[in-house]
Amino acid sequence: MIHSARKPLLTLLMLTTPLAACAQQPESAPQPAIAAPVAAQSSAPQLVTGLPDFTALVEQVGPGVVNIEARSSGRQSTRGQMQEDEIPEFFRRMLPPGIQMPEPGQGRRGVSMGSGFIISDDGYVLTNHHVIDGADEVKVRLPDRREFTAKVVGSDQQYDVALLKIDGKSLPTVRLGSSATVKPGQWVVAIGSPLGLDHSVTAGIISATGRSASAEQRYVPFIQTDVAINQGNSGGPLLNTRGEVVGINSQIFSMSGGYMGISFAIPVDLAMSAVDQLKKSGRVSRGQLGVIVEPLDSAKAKGLKVPDARGALVNQVLDDSPAAKAGIEIGDVITSFNGSAVNQSSELPPLVGALTPGSRAKVTVLREGKPREFTVTLTELDEGTGTAAAPSQSAPGAPSAAPATNALGIVAQEVDANARRQLGLKSGEGVMISRVTGTAAREAGLAPGMVILQVGRTAVGSPAELNRQLASARPGDTVMLLVRRGGATTFIPVVVEKAD
């Protein structure tokens, strides 16, 4: 929902001399000596000089930026879309002619207003998936007021990219740049239709690159900017100072629904790789490695005997996946994929997803602190792959728990058949925690109902096996436990307590 902004109170900082100091002083009063200002001396070079003028850029690029109106018969609004009855009254008065405002509570067709840009003079238009998602009719309006009915060639929800086609010749186009060269601090410009206001121009800088903005779009290394972006900017171009498109404006981070200085753009290199696939087949396919990873921290790094917290920690390897066939194991830390460094877990999915099924890639991991290299042949990503949710408590008739005879104070029991089905566990895989008596284990987050799958790199399938694996733990050691909780698998480091 878009909230109308209240007019803020303006605080004026007066830079004039205070009135008391302006009072005329007696002639006899001595005038204080004023020391001559001393210029600051610095040997540092001037790093920023002047401010850019974007007028030439806007005049050149503007004709290729379009307004998109998507109409659907349904009443629901999808992510990022702006419905007619969600527009504040101030902006209602400024909407383009022809848009009729429904009365409150009146049934109406859903209208999504967004932006896009023409990438070829024969009429291919790029925008966001969420702008046209579920639309029965899509209209594209050019700055010269020409209007076309567009055909949706294809779209992809994960990348949030949609390719449209309009019937036209010698249409104005934008120039495509490369998102691989963008760096934090560079100037960028956005052109679009925020809140239905055609061809609004805003500017700012690149705040960060390679951002993971949402779990739903883990395959997109977003470009973060502080360019003013609002609803309706979706699908519009993010431009460098050469007037080249480096991204597609897609999302904003907001507490109010409006601009807060954090916006996200899809890298144009990624978008154009999707365009090639959409033209050929109408869909996008991504490579799959077949691992689930989690972030590293200093405690986990110590428990895994790796030098630092860089990399992606593997906590699950799918059966018959490329990773499993290559020999990658749970507990490996992936530090490089296909020649690109992996410094944090969120960097791995975009690198894998950018490759097509059948591609071969080299994966470098740390295992017990030593590097190993594997060659994998990627399969096609199954978007529906998931993990069953864990039960909140043991089912009636569960096996009795074994006493806690281990250094962590964990009382475990065998996993009953019902819980095993829900969690997707194989026979003899894992033990369920029934009670935690150790302080360090509780503080680490271990709780009844969780299932311990491994101690370090060794799988456990019975309470007795758990106790045997923990028998060698000494006070001060960091023990890595692979735990299934809440439908997710993660490593939990626990430091063995010292005796009082």
Automatic annotation (TrEMBL):
<dbReference type="GO" id="GO:0004252">
    <property type="term" value="F:serine-type endopeptidase activity"/>
</dbReference>
<keyword id="KW-0574">Periplasm</keyword>
<dbReference type="Pfam" id="PF13365">
    <property type="entry name" value="Trypsin_2"/>
</dbReference>
<dbReference type="InterPro" id="IPR009003">
    <property type="entry name" value="Peptidase_S1_PA"/>
</dbReference>
<feature type="region of interest" description="Disordered">
    <location>
        <begin position="382"/>
        <end position="401"/>
    </location>
</feature>
<feature type="active site" description="Charge relay system">
    <location>
        <position position="160"/>
    </location>
</feature>
<keyword id="KW-0346">Stress response</keyword>
<keyword id="KW-0645">Protease</keyword>
<feature type="binding site">
    <location>
        <position position="160"/>
    </location>
    <ligand>
        <name>substrate</name>
    </ligand>
</feature>
<dbReference type="InterPro" id="IPR011782">
    <property type="entry name" value="Pept_S1C_Do"/>
</dbReference>
<feature type="active site" description="Charge relay system">
    <location>
        <position position="234"/>
    </location>
</feature>
<comment type="similarity">
    <text>Belongs to the peptidase S1C family.</text>
</comment>
<keyword id="KW-0378">Hydrolase</keyword>
<dbReference type="InterPro" id="IPR001478">
    <property type="entry name" value="PDZ"/>
</dbReference>
<keyword id="KW-0732">Signal</keyword>
<feature type="signal peptide">
    <location>
        <begin position="1"/>
        <end position="23"/>
    </location>
</feature>
<feature type="binding site">
    <location>
        <begin position="232"/>
        <end position="234"/>
    </location>
    <ligand>
        <name>substrate</name>
    </ligand>
</feature>
<feature type="active site" description="Charge relay system">
    <location>
        <position position="130"/>
    </location>
</feature>
<feature type="domain" description="PDZ">
    <location>
        <begin position="283"/>
        <end position="342"/>
    </location>
</feature>
<dbReference type="Pfam" id="PF13180">
    <property type="entry name" value="PDZ_2"/>
</dbReference>
<comment type="function">
    <text>Might be efficient in the degradation of transiently denatured and unfolded proteins which accumulate in the periplasm following stress conditions.</text>
</comment>
<dbReference type="InterPro" id="IPR036034">
    <property type="entry name" value="PDZ_sf"/>
</dbReference>
<feature type="binding site">
    <location>
        <position position="130"/>
    </location>
    <ligand>
        <name>substrate</name>
    </ligand>
</feature>
<keyword id="KW-0720">Serine protease</keyword>
<protein>
    <recommendedName>
        <fullName>Probable periplasmic serine endoprotease DegP-like</fullName>
        <ecNumber>3.4.21.107</ecNumber>
    </recommendedName>
</protein>
<dbReference type="GO" id="GO:0042597">
    <property type="term" value="C:periplasmic space"/>
</dbReference>
<dbReference type="InterPro" id="IPR001940">
    <property type="entry name" value="Peptidase_S1C"/>
</dbReference>
<feature type="compositionally biased region" description="Low complexity">
    <location>
        <begin position="384"/>
        <end position="401"/>
    </location>
</feature>
<dbReference type="GO" id="GO:0006508">
    <property type="term" value="P:proteolysis"/>
</dbReference>
<keyword id="KW-0677">Repeat</keyword>
